[in-house]
Predict the structure.
Amino acid sequence: MIVKSMTLRPIDQGITGEITVPGDKSISHRSVIFASLASGTSTITNFLAGEDCLRTINVFRSLGVNIDQDGTKVSIKSDGVGRLKEAECPVYFGNSGTTARLVTGVLASLPLFTTCYGDPSLSNRPMDRVITPLSKMGANIQGRDNNRLLPIAISGKTLKGITYEMPVKSAQVKSAILLAGMLGEGETTVIEQVKTRDHTEQMLPRFGVGVEVEGLKITIKGGQRPHSADIAVPGDISSAAFFLVAAAVIPGSHITVKDVGLNETRTGIITALEKMGANIQTTVTRTIGSEPVGDIEVKYAPLKGSIMEGDLIPALIDELPILALAATQAEGKTIIKDAEELRVKETDRIAAVADVLTKLGADVTEQPDGLIIHGKSVLRSAEVDSYMDHRIGMMVAIASLLAEGNIQLTNSECIAISYPDFFKDLEYIIKK
Ligand code: SPQ
């Protein structure tokens, strides 16, 4: 196997200017799934044409939905959930946990037989977190390693509503159960430990589906069938986070990321950077559906260490690798805890962040549920791997801007999972 490697160079001044980032990954996935289940034609704009979301499109194409994708514009013509066809071949989820978990919730509820598989990373991520509650609803799903892992075989049927107290903090599990509840019989209630991203609850009503939210309790009635809707996807705060942190840690920086989704279940990175003393202004400019959208302005300011824990963690779970980099540039100790979910992402992100940042000269100690980082460290030249994890790859690219010398990044191509034009946008903001 040929391992690709790229050289990343430091910069000698701050980053400045305005930038937009591609559409939100979580919202892009959900818009394709809900539109595919809806009767009629739905149009999605500012869709994220990254590898993960393209997997979701391909899954529904293989179930007979007519989907036309032209860059960031997607048109979905469906005859509704009752007309989905059995896929002729095993369906491939690639690297995408969101596709795997949400689509399993759908397929378990329909009278279709489907086999599903993923890439090596996804094949090691837990599927029992959705198989267990779906089985309580009556689902018939078999999977590798005692129904824990992909590949899985699903013999779909009408499921029955349940009340489920979630043992894990996961929007994917919540969404899979809600979708199965919507397609099944009776009433389904999901009770969360802490609030996770709520795009499913926010978006289903736009497709005509009733969802009741009462604090951490979400209830959906069975037998509901979505109708078509048009969705405009806001910019992805998880992608914006790389530029926000770059501006927060590189002296002389002043940037604005425009048109970013500011749903409060996703803005933990802003809260965390503010806790560390960052100079950030957020302006809500409009709402799309019920999702607030706006601009985030960051001016460089010295950072100090802080504690990141509890309810804050789900609101920045995917931003923890880049936040850990910010912590290496903050004076004092940063503690990240309650983040054990990081161990079951595209890679074990606790181990990967500790390994990569240590190789770059930072002082990072791995904990069972997080990291302890002592700053401020001078980052040095090294060769590091992305672990085939897009968020680790982009974190390394931002680290390279501040390093003393060049950083060699291997397996950078995985960045296309969520941000195909990342290096182009990075070049743009560096050169402004
Ligand atoms: O889709 P996938 O592979 O799970 O992607 C990640 C990411 O970093 O992009 C996590 F690895 O995002 C998840 C996120 O961590 C996307 C997501 C969603 O759209 O519902 C929810 C979170 O996962 P979870 O397991 O906490 O629900």
Summary: The pocket of SPQ is lined by residues 25-26, 29, 52, 96-98, 170-172, 175, 196-197, 317-318, 341, 345-346, 391, 418 (CB under 6 Å). Residues 25-37 form the longest helix (13 residues). The chain has a mean pLDDT of 97. The radius of gyration is 21 Å.
